[in-house]
Design goal:
With 149 residues, the chain is mostly helical. Helix content is 63%, strand content 4%. The protein has five helices and two strands. It has helices at 5-28, 36-54, 56-61, 67-89, 110-131, and strands at residues 97-99, 105-107. It has a two-stranded antiparallel sheet. Helix 2 runs parallel beside helix 5 (110-131). The mean pLDDT is 80.
Length: 149
């Protein structure tokens, strides 16, 4: 991959804005179109931008961008919220609204959407990690004379 100064410089300013829009879509999704899925896709676009601007090594070396913990924690969060609604409220994903300090009212299903957000983001991180993988690392090959023809 060619090193692009314009892409690297542009991504420094654009990535935080894209991540902010992603979080806005996550929170706004309860009253309008959006939520965990579209927010996760938007956050995945940030990962793709970082992948193209900084290279595969940046994705591999990041401790925050591990796909297994992202997917596992998101799935655990979404399923736990759904089952809690089933046990406490009588229906899967039954939720209410709660008030945060400062008078901001938030839907309890935001917890479920955060789980979906993490699952989608984790899947995109996993795809990007595997796209840059050459496939030859850690593979042992048989010597030519050992292969029967």
């Amino acid at each position: 991959m060619r090193d692009s100064l314009i892409l690297r410089t542009g991504s420094r300013g654009l990535a935080p804005i894209m991540l902010g829009v992603s979080l806005y879509l996550l929170v706004r999704g309860h009253d309008a179109v959006g939520g965990g899925f579209i927010g996760g896709l938007s956050a995945g676009a940030v990962v793709v931008l970082l992948y193209f601007s900084r290279g595969h090594e940046r994705i591999l070396s990041s401790r925050l961008l591990r796909y297994a913990p992202l997917v596992a924690s998101g799935l655990l969060l979404a399923v736990t919220y759904g089952i809690a609604g089933l046990v406490l409220g009588g229906s899967f994903l039954a939720g209410a609204k709660f008030e945060l300090p400062g008078g901001l009212e938030v839907a309890a299903s935001l917890i479920f959407d955060v789980g979906v957000y993490l699952v989608v983001l984790g899947l995109i991180v996993g795809i990007m990690r595997h796209l840059g993988h050459t496939g030859d690392e850690g593979v042992t090959r048989l010597p030519e004379r050992a292969v029967r023809r």
